[in-house]
Each structure stands twice: as C-alpha cells, then as structure tokens.
Amino acid sequence: MPDALVRDLFDGPLDVVGDIHGELDALKNLLHQLGYSEDGVHPEKRRLVFVGDLTDRGPDSPGVVALIQSFVETGAAQCVLGNHDLNILLGDRKHDNHWFFGEEFALDGSDIPTPAVIADESIRDRVIQFFQTLPLALERHDLRVIHACWDDEMIEVARRSNDAVALHQEHAKRITTAQSQQPDIDTIQKGLEFQNRNPVKVLTSGKEQRAAKPFEASGKLRYQERVSWWHEYNAEPYCVFGHYSMYRGLDRGASRAICADYAVAKRWQERKHHSFDGDFKGMLAAIRFPEKVVVFDNGDTEVSSIQD
User: What is the chain's Cα-based Rg?
Assistant: First the structure.
C-alpha cells in the first residue's frame, strides 16, 4: 500500500529549500552554497527537504524536477507537493504551466514567449509519476514542513489518505453537492468553500478570505485573498512552509513558523525589466535546521525570524 500523505521527516540536520519554480541555475548555486555534491550528498550528513512548487515561470522546470527526483530516489532528499505541482497532477492548464502541455506562452501577455523548456510526452510522464509519489506534509517531533498551510484538522484528514488527487476530487465533489442545495450562495463564497473546505487545497495553497477589493494575480482578476495563518501558529514544533513569495525584508513569521519562499518565482519578471543588471531581488533560499539560519543562492546568509 502506498505511503500516507503525511510522512515522517528525516532525522538530523536539514536544509529546507523554498519554492524553486523552474530556476535550475539558482538551485544549483544554492546547493553549492550549502555544501552539497552534485548527487545531493553533504559531507556533514545534512539532508535536503523541498517545500514544493518545483515548476512554472522559470526557464527549466523539467531540469529542476529531474534533479530533485534523483535526490529523492537515492534517499538524499524529501519533497512535499505544492499547488503548482498539484495543478499538473490534476491536468489544470494555468497561466504559467503551458510548458507542461507543450506550448510556448508569454507570461506578460506580449508576443514574446517567456523562456521555458517545453515538455514532450516522455517528460510529462516522468513528471506526473514523480509528483504522484509526493506527500502533502512531513513531520518530526521538532519540525514540520508543508507547502502552504499547516492546519491540524486538514492534516488529520490527509493522514488517512495516500492519493492527493483522489482526496482532492472526493472533497470537491462533496462541496459541489452541498452547494447545489444552497441556491443563494454567491460566487465568491462558493470559491472560498472550494478553497477552505478541501484538505488538499488548504495544505497546498492555504486558506483564503474575501478581498477588500479585486486584484490581478497570475493573469486573473481575484476576489479572494490569502490568510496569513502563520501569525497565529504557536505549536511546539517549528514549521517551515513556502508558497507566499515574499522578498527579503518582509515579515515572514511572528512565532514558530517561517516562509522559505523568497520570491525566486519573480525572476522571469526581473529579467524583462529594462533596468535589470543581473542582480536579482527574488532569491532561492534554504532554512538550515536546527541552526535557524537562512542561506541564499548568492551566498548571503541571515538569522531566521523564527523564535525559540
């Protein structure tokens, strides 16, 4: 029987890497800064953990997946499923995953496609097979790793399942059935229920609430906004998560939870800007545990904001 969707996290010292989004060069640079060999082995017996969102926006999603898959399969790394990875498993065409479906696409709406390695059938098969093996969460007594939101209720549901797609579809169907008996429910509330009552959605893309005013994100007008759940997180184990794409210097956590996503996903935008000089603002980073130090792909380091 396949492993459950909540699994044991490696023992020992770890480097928890944030969202990568197809930025293969940044990943290789970060691994070098952390002291890993090309096969993902560390001389001090550290191991890698990835928070998901391996693909989309960056120039080489297939290369990122292939490298991390090789680490996972040799026991050098663990990885959880992110919302971008889930979209691929569900076959959902999104604003930024056209590469997977064999299509060039301009993320900025121009006539110039955003640089991306385009998947063929063999790549698609390998990516899907790998993503099907990934859990939604990893845990040990002192540390938790999740892509978007650690929610105890949804974690308990995930413990009883071993198939993220089946679990997602099961709850989506339940929500649809319930809403069919609520004719007066508005479109925004419907969307919030699909987001906040589906365990796979909560764990991979977080809880949401009505936005004060509509805003545009990923080429779409949004009426729901993300909830900053980490401000209320006060469990004993630390929690490292990704998903929220925050630049350095922004508030990343007020207690024992910290976001490892330092906005490397926005590098495609930086490259196109007329003033770009090669010095990226969006970074790929790893949270070193138990040291609680952040290491960036350019070699910078800083003390993390998570508190003892």
Answer: 19
Residue 216: closest CA among 297, 107, 302: 107
1 pLDDT band (50/70/90 cuts)?
A: very low
Q: Which residues partner with 217 through β-bridges?
A: 220
Q: Give one word for 21, left, alpha or beta, with left for phi > 0 and alpha for psi -120 to 50.
A: left
DSSP letters for 249-276: TS---SSSEEE---BGGGHHHHHHSTT-
How many domains is the chain built from? 1
In a domain, 173, yes or no: no
Prior bond of 290 cis (ω within 30°)? yes
Secondary structure letter of residue 146 according to DSSP: E
pLDDT of residue 36: 98
Q: pLDDT of 272-283, one tens digit each? A: 998 999 899 999
User: How far apart are the C-alpha atoms of 31 and 17, rounded to whole Å?
Assistant: 10
| SS3 sequence of 80-143 | CCCHHHHHHHHCCCCCCCHHHHCCCCCCCCCCCCCCCCCCCHHHHHHHHHHHCCCCCEEEECCE
Q: Give the whole-number percent of the chain exceeding pLDDT 70.
A: 97
Q: Could you give the C-alpha distances from 17 to 20, 217, 283, in angstroms and in order?
A: 8, 24, 11
Assess if residue 7 is contained within a domain. Answer: no
Instruction: Give CA–CA dist 89/94, Å, rounded.
Output: 12
Please check whether residue 208 lies inside any domain of the structure: no
Q: Which domain holds residue 20?
A: 12-161+226-303
Residue 224 has φ and ψ, to the nearest 5°, of -120, 145
Give long-range contacts, CB 8 A cutoff, 24+ apart: 186-194. 187/223, 188/223, 188/224, 191/223, 191/224, 192/224
Distances (CA, A) of 100 to 8, 211, 245: 30, 31, 22
- Asked, for residue 60, whether it belongs to a domain, the answer is yes
Query: What is the spatial distance between Cα 157 and Cα 199, in angstroms, rounded to a whole number?
Result: 7
User: 146: domain CATH number?
Assistant: 3.60.21.10
Q: Is the pLDDT of residue 35 over 80?
A: yes
